[in-house]
Write a structure and sequence with these properties.
Elements lengths: L11 E5 L4 E4 L23 E4 L4 E5 L19
Antiparallel strand pairs: 1-4, 2-3
């Protein structure tokens, strides 16, 4: 598998905490969307790990096609 599977065709609204690290699911297979649960193993895809600088509300991509991983860029509107 080299292409991700859309988990949903809309973003996930999440509260991100300053100083915390997150692993965004890039494959679309995680049962803990939008975060990685290890389901990508064997797919050739890996999660996007990022450390949040400040606490804020954010929209993380659910369609897995964003160019601004892990954040939604509106690509789901054209799928």
């Amino acid at each position: 598998m080299t292409d991700p599977v859309p988990a949903q065709k809309e973003p996930y609204n999440v509260a991100l905490e300053a100083g915390k690290s997150y692993a965004w699911c890039a494959c679309g297979l995680s049962q803990s969307q939008p975060y990685c649960d290890g389901s990508h193993k064997g797919t050739g895809l890996t999660p996007v790990v990022f450390k949040q600088e400040e606490s804020e509300e954010a929209w993380l991509c659910g369609c897995k096609a964003t160019k601004d991983q892990p954040f939604c860029d509106g690509t789901h509107n054209s799928l």
